[in-house]
Structure formats: C-alpha cells, structure tokens
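Severity: low
Component: inverse-folding endpoint
Summary: output formatting inconsistent between runs
Steps to reproduce: submit the following structure tokens with default settings.
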C-alpha cells in the first residue's frame, strides 16, 4: 500500500532484438492517487497475461512480447532508482510518500530493509523513516452549493501577490475575488471553459478581461501565481515562468482588506461586497498565499479573522467519475464536480453511457422496421455487446432480407509452389468487419451460404487442399454437397471426371478441373482460410475463389415460446456489471404477469420486469440502495394479444423502460421475488440481455406448459368456438367472444331463437335516420371494404338463419332501407324459397331452392354477397353462385330495419312482398344474423338499456327452429354453463307428426350467463355479449307452457 502525489503507470519490457518485436507494454490504472489516502496495488502475472489492480480497479492485458518469462536485472528498485541517467531506467522522479506491506513474490521488502539485510541497498545520505509522517499539506474542499472562503489581506498596499493551487472538474467557477480600496474597482479570477480568466473592474471604465491556461479542469493540481501593481499584472500558470500572461493596460492597484475564494457569501452589506456572475467553484484548494505569506487556516479561523461556509478542511474530497471510464464503446467522458457526461459521437452507440446501439442487429430487423429498399446498411449483430457495428449490403425482398458481405478472395487466387509440409494458407478477409463480427452475423442468421470454387491442374485436392471455417475447424468437402457425406458435389450428382474419386481434383489429371458449389451449413460458415498443399511439382497449379457470405433471417427475432401454464424457465444468472439492457417482444390477453427476473443467490440484488395492469409496465430493481421501480404508463392497453416490443436499461446514471414507440419512462439516480407469484401467460420472443440473444426455444417443455412458437389453447382447442365466435387466447385456457354472432354459450354454440304466433312480428332498427348526401358521397369516394358498421353503401352482405314451419306463404326476413333498396327472403306457397335483391332500379330474383321447406323440420339458409357476386346455400346442399348485372349498382344503400314475422315498414312495399306478407310467419326462427346485427340476440340477451328492438304479438324464446350443428352438439360434461337436463316443449301448432313408438326426447339446456338468478357452477370470465347491463333486463327462462301463461296474464 502507498500514499503519494502521483499516478501509477506499469511497464513490462519484453522486446526481441532478433524478431524486431517491441515488447513494451504499458498499463495505467487509478486516479487522484495524490489525496493523502492509502491505496492498494496488486500486480499478478501468469505468462504473458498481467492483472494490474489499484484499489478496486483492475486492468488486464496481454504483454506484447513473444516470451513468457521475465528476464529481469539482478536488482529491483523500490521507491525510485539509485543510479542516474541509465538508459533502461525510468526518468520519472523518485517516489515521495509512504509505502507499507511491499511484497514481491511473497518477500517482505520493508522487513528486510529494517533488518538491513545484505541484499538490500539503501543510498547513502538518505535517511529512511519506518513510520508515515503527516505531510504539511492541508487542502480544503469546496463542496456545497453556497460554499465560500473569506480571508483577510493587507489594506491599501500598492502591490498584490496571490498564489494558490486548485484542482477541479468544473468548466466554470469563481476562484478568487477581491475589491480594491478607495473604490478603485475589483479583481476577479475565474475558471471558464478550462481557462483562467482575469477580469479587472474599474469604475467608469470598460472592464479588462484576459485568459490564460488550457484544460485546467482536468482534475490535477494546478498552480496560479498572480502579481499586480499599477498598470502591470502578471499571471503564471503551473510555474511556467517562460510564458506568463502580462497585462500592461492602465489601472491602479490598492489592495483591499479581504479576499474571497470559491464563491461570494450571501449578504446585504454593500460595502466591499463580493459580486460575481460566475458559478461557485467546486473542487479543492491548498497552499494559499496572500502578499507572499501562506495562510494558516487554523489561526485565521481560531481568531475569527475569516469565515467560510460548506467547506471541508484538511481533505480533498474530489471524485474522479471518469476513472474507470463509465462510457462504453470508446465513448469520451467529461465530468463536473457532481456529474459526468458521455460523448458518444462517432461511436455507433447512444444513451447515457453509450451503451445502446444506434443500428439494427440485422438486415431482417431493418426490413421489419419498414426499410424495404436495398442498399448499404450498418448492422450490429450483438447490439450493446463488445463487437463493433459494420457495414453490409442488404438485398431486400418482400418476405426476407439477404445480408451480403464481400471479401478479398472473390476475384480468385492462383497458387503454385506449395507443398504438403509448407502449404499455402490463404486468409479470407471480409470487408468492413472483423472475423468475430462476421461470425456473429452467421450465428444469428437463419440461413447462410457461400460460394467456393477450387480448381486444379496436376494437383491433388483432398487431403492436401481443404478449407477452414468457424472455430478453426478443417473441412474436406467442397460446395454442392452435404456436410455429413464429406464428398464433393460431383459425387452427389454422379458427374465426377473419374468415378473412382469423390472429387474432380482428387484425380490429379493434367487438365483443369474444379469442384465448386455453395456451402450452406451455417455452423461451419463463414470460410476463414483456404489451404492448398500440392502445387510444388512441375506444372502443378491451383486456383480458388471464395464468394461473398450471404445470409438471411434472424434467429433471435423469431425465437419464440408460449407459456400456457403458470410456470417459469431458468437461465444462468445474468451479471450485468455497471450497465445492462434487456429487450424482448411479448403478446398476451392477460392483465398481469412477470416477464423475467434476475437475482443473485442471496436475493439481495435483483432486476425484474413485469406488467401489473393492462396499461402499466414495471421495471423493478434493487442494487444495494433499496428497491426502486420505474413505471411506464401506456395510453393503450398492452393485453390486446398483439406483439409489443419492450426495452429496459439500467446504468450508473438512470434506469428506464419503454414499449413500442412510446417515450422512455425514466428514473434518475442521485449522485427477490416469488417466481410463481404473478405468472406470465402469453408469448415471448427475441429476448436479449446486454445484446446477447437468449435461446428461448431451447427451454421448450410441453408438460410444464412451455410451447415452441406462439401457440396457446386456441390453436388445438378440444372444442373450438362455434358459429364464427372469436377465440380469446388465455394461453392456459381460452374463452369465446360471441359478440358478433347470433349465438350464445361458452363456445357460441347455443342457439337464440323465437317462436312467432299468428300476426306477431319483430323489428330491429339498424339506423334511426338516413345518411346525409355529403357522407354518402365521401363513402363513395373512399369506400371501406366490408365495413358493416357504417350502415350505408354496403357492397357486402352476410345473412344466415334457420327456421321451421308448416305454414305458407311468409316473409322469412326483410331488410329495408331509407331508399327503395331492400333484401327479402320469401317462403312461397309451394314451400320453395326465393331471394329478392333490389339495388337501385332493378329487383333481382334468385331461387334458393325448389324443395318444399315448409315440412316442419329445421332448415338453414346462408346468403353471402360481395359486390356483384352472390353465393347462396340451403341446408347441406352445394352453394349456388349468382351474378348481378354489371350495369347495376352493387351497393345496398342505407339499410334501415330488419323485420321478422311480418313486414311492417312504412311507405311503398313491393307487390311481391305484400302478396306473401299475410297472414305472416308462423313458426320458429333461430340464429338470425345480418352482418354484425343479431336481432333475436339483442331482444333476448340485451347488452344495453334500450335495445333497438320492437315486437308486436306473441314472440317467445324457443330453439325449435335450430338447425343441427355441423360439428355436433357440445357434450354436457365439458360445457361450463351446463346446469341440468330439461325436456323440450314441442309446439303442437306446428303440426309435427308423432314418431311411432313412445320414447322421451330430451336435450340439454344451458345457463345463460348473467340471465339467471341461480349461482353459476364455475367462475368463468367470458366476453360474451349475453351479460345484461342492468338487472331490469334480466329474464328467467322457463318451460314454454309457463312462459305462455305468464305472457297472457300480462
């Protein structure tokens, strides 16, 4: 250990005169070691590797020399050299300070010196003290926002002498201020932009201002020596007497009785007041001389001749925040008293400590970000890792992006004179990138290929010719083949010149042959060297060409897993050091979950990223100063089952997190968890930590609920959502969203139907008022494809329902509009079904079926129109495709209402509609849907307080018109809404015949969620629209005879 006023360099000579190798290695560590504190130094060497530690900062290097042993002189010097002016010894001054516990290879040097052992030599006339005396250096630290020091001076002297030492990191600050006697003005010494500014103020005259010095805010001690008299001022920096600053302007000097250092006190006294526009000085001062007398601070303060504020006496508390350099990737650190800034220009990185890469990790990442044009791009495969960015050519395709890197062997290399013992080794150097950087690109790509051509003339190929790829492995196969077979492409294609050999160049013919093709095994690429070993015979010659490396894809971007159970995966502990970044993509329907957590073995330090609400992301960490969290509040929900990109960073200055393109949420710094507490269910992909990709797919375990790719329960659902219901992925489970269907139930499998008596009808209002001409014209100019919610100018229709009846004729469904347009499905007298479309002036008639559907059985009708193409289907028959004439408008203008039972529209009604409208539909109809409108569901399962439905007569809920589902009925044992078995009421007025033989017919009934007052059998969250918004809209489902009695009593 030592205490000293000097930095600490370390030299290792290891030069070789024979091979002209400069083996001098210099290591530098430590800063501000001249602070009169003890510092600990350790030097450990193993072969050519050296670890040099000063206090807690370790520098590691490999010596430049070619040897592993130090050939030292017979003498070791401690504290300085004895012989002077020897060329191989350092020229720096001898050490002045204290040393203790000096060990060299476990030999205690100070112990031997105290015992005056013969191998220890101490210079004569030099007295050694075996105790560390206090040095007469008493610095002071200006450390506060209001610091200052006021000391006395000699009043009204014609000469001024001020001298002191200072050290600081600040660019600006007041060093010294004094006001002259007799109101002659004032003099100010200030630090500005690393220079000493001298300013002389004179009443009634323009101030005089001069500057001296350069970069004096470097943290080292600097001496300021000022001498002034009338019309002459001399300023010397660091005792360089050869180039002092001299000012010869006219001014008068009469010293004042007080001097201020570091700042001006806050006072109301206007007499001899200290006034300055400079900031307060922050740093250290010592050796202050006023009029050639050194200040004795203890006496001045003891006798109250001066005063101070926020001053630390007897110590220099300056801190070097730039050593070791906190700026990464060769960023330049500049600092002030209490902060530092990293300048990241021209480094390829950004952020508070130059940690985050400016560039994307691959051409694929550029393509996914919207860069669709080919050209030169700069990529950084390891992002914030140690590898530097480099330029490549990106060839963009619509579905992939090729990365192309050229090399210096593309034009071919001729080889002759090489032998088996001394082969030719052709290194392949890639443009703009080191070998490690090219390897990183290949490692992160999905696919790579590289053309290689080996041509020979009277020269053996294998085993004397081969190529070396990644990991310095030798490979004896050439292009156009597979890595396992170890052959050439001609052997695979059976085109070799001599079938006895597996490569053309194995034959050793006096003729040019070649083995060429693409190498496409990514783990062997890129090609690093080509070795040619048999061209030293007369006439022997070989030539090889290595094409550019071409890769596409990014394995990390699509490295995806899905969590379908409350579980977790583990990786080795991430040790980030002073800075770390984490990035990943996620998608989920859940409103909470922990994405990842990293902690030490004692859970004293940890990092965690989680989602605690639908809009909040938390970045939580503890690094020794208590738990801190950064909260990002997203304006949009994050559990929308869409991919979201999360980035988090923590360094010595701040912690921050962002999602997608939203701003960073930041927590700035002044100067362990239960893994199954809030499990994440959803998908993760592209996880990187400090730029290093994490292999998520390597942790796939189906039994634990970890699946490859983003696949949850919806993909392989045992019972899929029926009737176009949307599957809501819960990853551990799923629910079905039935909002845009005409069905209900957990799987959208429950029909919602009605029984219509004679004269009863139902009207559903699509719109209450027509669309304005301006809105119609705007929609005509810019139509929205399949946007049914507009309610006007629709070019697409989707209609489906099922029904059963024995009565004819009837209008099964009628859709009116605010114009003469309409859609009608008519049950004719003979039981056949027609479709009538009126679009504009012409009414289009289509026969859906000629069969008699008024037979008492349920029948299914589906009608789909897109522009002028109409597709119709009845029951399980083949669909029929019809076309509307091209001269006719293909838009159904401004739909108004839907009618079932009878058409009760006001205004003119087509004669064919009137003819089939009486006495009205009698029977059952179920699952009625027009685009997104489901009138029966809106009536029996309202989700608003005032549903747009009007009824007349007896319309009761019944599933007697339900068509048997194509996928079969849902078994009651897997239906969460199943409660009990009930018998179906058969309407005798349908005229159904009884099947011979008495037997019971029963079906399952289902609890409608939110429509029963009984308790649900399971606690399930379904977004089904069957939940009413008010209690007044609840209905009790009862047996149909009881419902009939209840309605009649009302």
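Observed output (run 2 of 3):
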């Amino acid at each position: 250990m030592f205490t000293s006023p000097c930095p600490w360099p370390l030299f290792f000579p290891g030069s070789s005169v024979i091979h002209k190798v400069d083996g001098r290695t210099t290591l530098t560590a430590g800063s501000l070691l001249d602070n009169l504190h003890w510092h600990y130094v350790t030097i450990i060497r193993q072969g050519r590797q050296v670890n040099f530690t000063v206090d807690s900062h370790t520098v590691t290097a490999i010596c430049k020399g070619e040897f592993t042993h130090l050939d030292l002189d017979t003498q070791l010097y401690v504290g300085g050299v004895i012989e002077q002016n020897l060329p191989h010894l350092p020229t720096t001054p001898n050490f002045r300070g204290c040393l203790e516990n000096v060990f060299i290879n476990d030999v205690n040097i100070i112990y031997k010196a105290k015992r005056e052992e013969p191998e220890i030599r101490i210079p004569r006339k030099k007295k050694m003290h075996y105790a560390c005396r206090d040095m007469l250096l008493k610095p002071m630290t200006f450390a506060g926002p209001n610091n200052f020091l006021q000391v006395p001076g000699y009043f009204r002297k014609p000469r001024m002498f001020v001298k002191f030492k200072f050290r600081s990191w600040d660019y600006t600050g007041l060093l010294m201020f004094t006001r002259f006697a007799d109101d002659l003005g004032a003099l100010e010494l200030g630090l500005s932009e690393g220079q000493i500014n001298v300013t002389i103020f004179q009443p009634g005259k323009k101030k005089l201002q001069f500057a001296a010095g350069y970069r004096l805010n470097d943290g080292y001690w600097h001496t300021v020596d000022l001498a002034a008299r009338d019309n002459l001022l001399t300023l010397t920096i660091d005792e360089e007497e050869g180039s002092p600053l001299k000012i010869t302007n006219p001014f008068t000097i009469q010293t004042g009785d007080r001097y201020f250092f570091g700042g001006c006190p806050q006072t109301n006294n206007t007499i001899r007041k200290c006034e300055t526009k400079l900031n307060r000085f922050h740093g250290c001062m010592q050796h202050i001389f006023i009029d050639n007398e050194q200040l004795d601070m203890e006496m001045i303060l003891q006798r109250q001749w001066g005063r101070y504020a926020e001053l630390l006496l007897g110590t220099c508390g300056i801190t070097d925040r730039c050593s070791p350099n906190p700026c990464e990737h060769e960023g330049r650190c500049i600092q002030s008293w209490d902060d530092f800034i990293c300048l990241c220009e021209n480094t390829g990185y950004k952020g508070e400590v130059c940690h985050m890469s400016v560039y994307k990790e691959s051409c694929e990442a550029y393509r996914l970000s919207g860069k669709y044009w080919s050209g030169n791009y700069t990529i950084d495969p390891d992002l914030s890792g140690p590898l530097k960015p480099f330029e490549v050519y990106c060839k963009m395709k619509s579905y992939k992006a090729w990365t192309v890197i050229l090399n210096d062997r593309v034009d071919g290399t001729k080889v002759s004179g090489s032998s088996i013992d001394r082969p030719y080794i052709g290194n392949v150097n890639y443009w703009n990138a080191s070998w490690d950087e090219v390897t990183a690109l290949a490692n992160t790509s999905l696919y790579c290929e590289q053309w290689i051509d080996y041509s020979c003339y009277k020269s053996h190929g294998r085993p004397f010719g081969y190529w070396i790829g990644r990991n310095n492995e030798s490979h004896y196969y050439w292009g156009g083949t597979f890595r396992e077979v170890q052959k050439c492409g001609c052997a695979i294609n059976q085109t070799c010149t001599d079938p006895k050999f597996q490569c053309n160049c194995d034959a050793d013919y006096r003729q040019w042959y070649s083995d060429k093709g693409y190498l496409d095994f990514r783990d062997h690429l890129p090609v690093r060297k080509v070795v040619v070993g048999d061209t030293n015979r007369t006439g022997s010659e070989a030539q090889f060409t290595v094409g550019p490396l071409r890769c596409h894809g990014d394995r990390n971007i699509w490295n995806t897993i899905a969590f379908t159970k409350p579980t977790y995966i583990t990786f080795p502990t991430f040790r980030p050091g002073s800075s770390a970044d984490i990035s990943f993509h996620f998608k989920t329907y859940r409103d909470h979950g922990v994405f990842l957590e990293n902690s030490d073995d004692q859970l004293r330090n940890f990092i965690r990223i989680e989602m605690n609400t639908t809009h909040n992301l938390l970045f939580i960490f503890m690094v020794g100063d208590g738990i801190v969290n950064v909260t990002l509040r997203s304006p949009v929900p994050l559990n929308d089952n869409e991919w979201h990109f999360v980035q988090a960073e923590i360094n010595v200055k701040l912690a921050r997190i962002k999602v997608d393109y939203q701003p960073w949420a930041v927590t700035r710094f002044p100067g362990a968890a239960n893994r199954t507490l809030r499990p994440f269910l959803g998908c993760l992909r592209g996880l990187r930590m400090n730029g290093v990709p994490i292999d998520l797919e390597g942790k796939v375990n189906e039994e634990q609920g970890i699946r490859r790719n983003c696949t949850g329960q919806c993909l392989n659902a045992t019972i899929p959502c029926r009737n176009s219901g949307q599957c809501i992925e819960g990853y551990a489970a799923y629910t079905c969203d039935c909002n845009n269907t005409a069905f209900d139930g957990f799987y959208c499998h429950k029909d919602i139907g009605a029984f219509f008596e004679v004269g009863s009808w139902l009207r559903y209002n699509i719109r209450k008022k027509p669309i304005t001409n301006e809105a119609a014209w705007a929609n005509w100019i810019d139509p929205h494809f399949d946007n049914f919610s507009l309610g006007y100018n629709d070019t697409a229709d989707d209609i489906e329902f099922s029904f059963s009846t024995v009565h004819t004729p009837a209008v099964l469904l009628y859709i009116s509009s605010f114009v003469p347009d309409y859609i009608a499905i008519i049950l004719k007298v003979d039981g056949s079904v027609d479709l009538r479309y009126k679009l504009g002036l012409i009414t289009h008639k289509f026969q859906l079926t000629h069969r008699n559907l008024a037979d008492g059985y349920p029948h299914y009708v589906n009608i789909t129109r897109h522009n002028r193409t109409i597709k119709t289907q009845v029951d399980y028959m083949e669909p029929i495709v019809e076309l509307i004439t091209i001269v006719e408008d293909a838009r159904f203008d401004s739909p108004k209402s839907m009618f079932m039972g009878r058409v009760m529209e006001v205004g003119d009604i087509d004669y064919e509609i009137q003819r089939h409208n009486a006495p009205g539909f009698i029977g059952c109809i179920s699952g009625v849907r027009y685009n997104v409108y489901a009138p029966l569901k809106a009536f029996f399962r309202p989700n608003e307080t005032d549903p747009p439905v009007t009824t007349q007569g007896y319309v009761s809920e019944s599933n007697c018109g339900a068509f048997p589902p194509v996928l079969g009925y849902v078994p009651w044992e897997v239906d969460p809404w199943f409660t009990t078995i009930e018998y179906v009421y058969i309407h005798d007025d349908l005229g159904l015949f009884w099947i011979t033989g008495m037997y019971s017919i029963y079906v399952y009934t289902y609890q409608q969620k939110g429509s029963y007052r009984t308790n649900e059998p399971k606690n399930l969250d379904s977004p089904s629209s069957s939940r009413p918004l008010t209690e007044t809209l609840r209905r009790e489902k009862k047996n149909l005879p009881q419902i009939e009695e209840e309605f009649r009593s009302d």
